Amino acid sequence: MLSDRTMELAEAVTTAVLGVDALWQHMLKAEPTDAISDRLVVLNMSRAHVPDVFVTPADARDRLTDLQAQTRDLPEPDRRLYYDQFCGSTIAFTHWLEGNLPFEWQLPAFLHVPAERVSDARIDALKTELRNTLNRLGYTGDLSAQAAAWEARHRVPPDEVAGVLAELMDEAWDRTNRVIEIPADKSDGMRPIAETGVPYNARCDYEQREVALNIDPILTRPALKHLAVHECYPGHYLQFKLGEVWYASGDAPADLLLSVVNTASSCTFEGIADVGMHMIDWIEGDDDRLQSLLTRYRSAIGTRAAWRLHAEGWSAEAVRDELARDALIGGDGWIDNRMGFISAPDRSALIWSYWWGEELVLPAWQAVAPERRPDFYRFLFGRKHSPQSIAMFE
Predict the structure, then answer these.
(1) Within a 13 Å sphere around the CA of 236, how many CA atoms are in the beta-carbon half?
(2) Long-range contacts made by residues 19-23, C-beta under 8 angstroms, separation at least 24?
(3) CB 266 within 8 Å of CB 350
(4) What pLDDT is stored for residue 345 in this prediction?
(5) DSSP 363-377
(6) 20 to 30 A Cα–Cα from 311, which one of 72, 283, 333, 381?
(7) DSSP bridge pairs for 41
(8) Is 196 helix (H, G, I), strand (E, B) or coil?
(9) What is the mean pLDDT of residues 294-323?
């Protein structure tokens, strides 16, 4: 259980970040622009928290700086660190609102990760792992030919995607419920909705209980299995459901009611979802291992693409060409949605959260003895985490 002092600070932090989100929306209406398109708080499950009122970004900084100072007195070491970093992320976001935060500064300021793309050496190492796995599966030719043949073998036609995903979600629920009790009936779960022309692979719309799935990219059964876990169980649906239920019972802090982008928790939020396959022991063979490697690999080249575009000044056409050369699978639909994602100024840094997520959460999960995992899951799902606080489970 968290201390009263920490729970009280979480209440104040929650209304402050809601206030920054409201300020941004006010600024958008006052000065409309195509460059800024989304929200800072993308999900708010609270019906009781009233956003703080800020007239200018400087007003918000004053409040957040005061809250950041209060974090020094919190009794839990991981909460002192996390809320200090969360306030720092939101302060940085107010500078971004004023146009005063260059891209390279956004990575350490928003996400608390290094200002660098995934290295060529790491990308090459992932390619080697991919090739070795495809060799074991019996595919021949160069890496591109092997990946294309694997994709063709496992491809799910667009008109069958929603049905296959629904079946996989059903099994993911059952597997999750055996490991972490889901405080709801299965009828409360998610349902898949096919979409086209959107700049994401999939999106968990918790309030509508819908998984919006982009069917423009070529999709395989192993990829849909990963999405069932990532977006639903034990991924984002479970994160939101436990936060909602535990806050209502007085057992979790108020900020669990929010999903906030470009912040200290972004990497671990995605990492918890990506490590879900390990949590529910659903990696059944080399096809699943290959899908996991493909997910990591495409996250890596996604960071490279964003870095090329925003830090190195490459043209969008040149960045797209490099992505097309190295994507291996997914077709033009995947390249289109990645370019749409990294081209949005308010989301361009966020692609690093997909790379760093598994990089941070998987070692933390692996370090916990199986008999202690119920306590670890409470630590993992019962409070938000930064890249640094995730390793502070005792």
Answers:
(1) 24
(2) 19/51, 19/52, 19/53, 19/54, 19/60, 19/63, 20/54, 20/60, 20/64, 20/90, 20/93, 20/94, 21/51, 22/51, 22/53, 22/54, 23/54, 23/55, 23/56, 23/57, 23/60, 23/97
(3) yes
(4) 86
(5) HHHHTS-GGGHHHHH
(6) 333
(7) 260
(8) coil
(9) 97
Residue (of 279, 259, 287) closest to 203 by Cα position: 259
What is the DSSP code (8-state) at residue 44? E
Q: 131: helix, coil or strand?
A: helix
Q: pLDDT of 244-298, one tens digit each?
A: 999 999 999 999 999 999 999 999 999 999 999 999 999 999 999 999 999 999 9
Three-state DSSP state, 239:
helix
User: How far is it, in rounded angstroms, from Cα 114 to Cα 105?
Assistant: 9
Helix, coil or strand: residue 73: helix
Is residue 238 within 8 A of residue 180, CB to CB? The reply is yes
What interhelical angle do 286-310 and 143-154 show, nearest 10? Answer: 120
46, 208, 43, 197: CA torsion to nearest 10: -170
Q: Is the dihedral of CA 175, 290, 327, 268 positive or negative?
A: positive
Amino acid sitting at position 320: R
Residues 6+ apart with CB under 8 A from 148: 328, 329
Q: What distance in Å separates the CA atoms of residue 78 and residue 49, rounded to the nearest whole number?
A: 24
What residues form DSSP beta bridges with 44?
258
Q: Report helix, strand or coil for 393.
A: coil
Q: What is the pLDDT of residue 31?
A: 61
To the nearest 10 degrees (0 to 180), the angle between helices 57-70 and 77-97 is: 170
Write the Ramachandran bin of 305: left for phi over 0, alpha for psi from -120 to 50, otherwise beta. alpha
Which band of pLDDT confidence, cut at 50, 70 and 90, is reported for residue 37? low
Structure token digits, residue 280:
């529910």
Instruction: Give the residues across from 202 on adjacent strands.
Output: 213
Burial of 259: CB neighbours in 10 Å, binned 0-12, 13-18, 19+: buried
Which distant-in-sequence residues (6+ apart) come within 8 Å of 248 by Cβ?
A: none
pTM flag (> 0.85): yes
Strand locations in the chain (E):
41-44, 191-195, 202-205, 210-214, 258-260
